[in-house]
Amino acid sequence: MRVHLPSFLRAKRQQPAVRPRRRLRVLVCGGGELGTATAHRLLRAGVEVLVAERREPTALCRAVACAFAIYEGQVEVEGLRAARADGALQAEALLQERALPVLIEPTGEMIRHLAPGIVIDARSPKGAPPPWAEATSAALIALGPGSWAQPKAVVETRPGLLLGSVREAQEATPLPAEDRAPEQIVLARAQASGIFRAATSIGEAVEPGQLLGWVGRQEVPATAAGFVRGLLADGLRASEGQAVAEIYLGPEREACFRLLPWARAVAGGALEAVLALAGWP
Predict the structure, then answer these.
(1) Residues 165 and 90 in one domain
(2) How many Å apart are CA 56 and CA 71, to the nearest integer?
(3) Which of 125, 127, 79, 75 is nearest to 101 (CA)?
(4) What's the pLDDT at 173?
């Protein structure tokens, strides 16, 4: 006996049970805390993510920055494994393992091979275009104002009501120097130029005036009581006025080893911008 199905059931019957998901690959430029939080959020959403970093990263938050995979080979941030990739083939292999490849100053040829559909500028501060910039025509998203080209979208990074919102490029709010750190964070800056050496470690409790490290022969004291959350890598050269250490003012030592809500909010905005630009899923 022939069964007559209602039209809406026939339509559903003709559709595939599972829609195939298009591949979406994103390159994050900068492996500091913002870039790492963004990569973490995108990977959890099923996006393929790579990170491009300079040969000597200046990120401070060692426990939550995938950039330190360049120094240590691999690091883990909240369950995310980030590993140094010395070429495009190694990066592809890490993507297959659901890991985060961290590329050291990739060449244009490497970027053409990896073919990201979207690039996110997570550098802080932003500066000249990376050497590989001309090798891709991918849509650009900027975390905070400024980038090497006109971005399709800007994610607000200034603490406040609009934090993490996706905005037009001309609407993004420039950050005054005194507002560049999120709440509960105090930065210690170099008073002269020289090579940095740390005298403390991540997670250590410090008091005002306690020695954090040296820039050349110049001491870098703590300016507040709290926990050391960030330190410039030993042996890197710091310029006068550059942030070389970060102190967390809150009561939780664990915050030194976890992404801050500020970074998570920006990462959520980055995910929103990526999905909107890609028309995905």
Answers:
(1) yes
(2) 8
(3) 75
(4) 58
Q: Residue 248, by phi and psi: left (phi above 0), alpha (psi -120 to 50) or beta?
A: beta
Q: What tokens does 231 get?
A: 């330190």
HSE at residue 264, side-chain half, CA atoms within 13 A, is 6
Do 152 and 209 belong to one domain? Answer: no
The structure tokens listed for 261 are 């809500």
Chain centroid to Cα 239, Å, comes to 23
Question: Which tokens in the block code for residue 7?
Answer: 């039209």
- The pLDDT tens digits for 115-127 are 999 999 999 888 8
How many structural domains is the chain composed of?
2
Q: Which residues of the chain have pLDDT under 70?
A: 1-22, 169-182, 281
The pTM of this model reads 0.87
Residue spans of alpha helices (H) in the chain: 7-14, 33-44, 69-72, 88-96, 108-114, 261-278
Distance CA 266, CA 148 (A): 20
pLDDT of residue 160: 86
Q: How far apart are CA 166 and CA 272, in angstroms?
A: 8
Are 236 and 196 in contact, with CB atoms under 8 Å apart?
yes
| Domain coverage including residue 38 | 25-176+260-278
Res 124: pLDDT = 85
Amino acid 3: pLDDT:
42
On whether both 189 and 60 belong to a single domain, the answer is no
CA distances from 83 to 44, 46, 271 (A): 17, 18, 22
Q: Cis link prior to 101 (omega < 30° from 0)? A: no
Ramachandran category for residue 115: left, alpha or beta (phi over 0 → left; psi -120 to 50 → alpha): left
